[in-house]
Amino acid sequence: MNWKVLLSGLFGIGLLVAVLAVPILKGTDPHALPSVLEGRKAPGFLLDSLEGQTWSSDSLVGKPVVMNFWATWCGPCKQEHPALLAAARMYPEVVFLGVLYGDEPAKAQRYLARAGAAYPTLVDPAQRTAMDFGVGGVPETFFIDRQGQIVKKVAQPISMGEISHWVEAIQ
Amino acid sequence: MRALWTIWMVGVAWSSSDEAAVGLDTPALGVPPATEVEVDAQVEVLTTRLRCPVCQGLNVAESRSEAALAMKARIRELVAQGYTQDQVVGYFTDRYGDWVLLEPPRTGVNWVLWSGPAGLLALGGVLIGFRLRRTAATPGRDEVPPKRSDVSSEDPYVAQLLAELEDGP
Predict the structure, then answer these.
(1) Class of domain B2-105
(2) N or C: which end of chain B has fewer CB within 10 A?
(3) Would an 8 Å CB–CB cutoff place A50 in contact with chain B?
């Protein structure tokens, strides 16, 4: 047995395994990749809320905005809901908006009546706005500054600490 | 390749945001297809190239998820308006990044992925070639091994052992 050849082979295989294993061990998810929209202007939208009020991105110019894509069938969305409610009450100068993703408005209304609501939820027919924001699942939360730029996308259930951190960044 | 591409994207975590944005900000560069059949054909090609955003391992054509159906509807809409295939792909990579493509584009650092297997194969071939040449050039390689009777020993015990072996049972 040629030990040099054996060791070189093992080293090569080990290196390959290490390179491929790093992202797996880190527990990173492709959805958690930085959004290509971060640092770019937020896509425009014109959507109706569950209450029937029309919301336009143009009307939000100059205001910090937190947009949360969610659905009633999404467990993690329900998990983060109390934090978003508390944050919306804590930061009245920030516009909080929910955007319903692949769900029925009636179900969302029933859920919000039960769990509480502190900001409007918009209905996104054909998921056009979700597509424009590059949403790859829910929950996803976008933090948009006063200039209309996306500062951060959080693609996991968000905590109060994270919300506060990014709200400070967009104000 | 799909799995490797996903791991590569996660590991490298780079994006294509520096590339020219091609989306609805630009007018359709193509001519709207004349028939529904032509639209269907283009949609078929595009939906197999793009990844379903909520299922990862499936393309838009294979997935029955609501997100994939919405993407398919959007693709059909854009194709019918005369957007070229590159423009439609650009529309999605502009929003989702290269992650939305099932195959890595043959540009920049992705050439490492595309040329990696062939490169490793070539390297292996070169190493084997060197090894064979070195083995062939080793002196005494082709010499006939000496017969037992040619082997002698000054040690009487070994000499007797060799003699017995030579005589056989």
Answers:
(1) mainly alpha
(2) C
(3) no
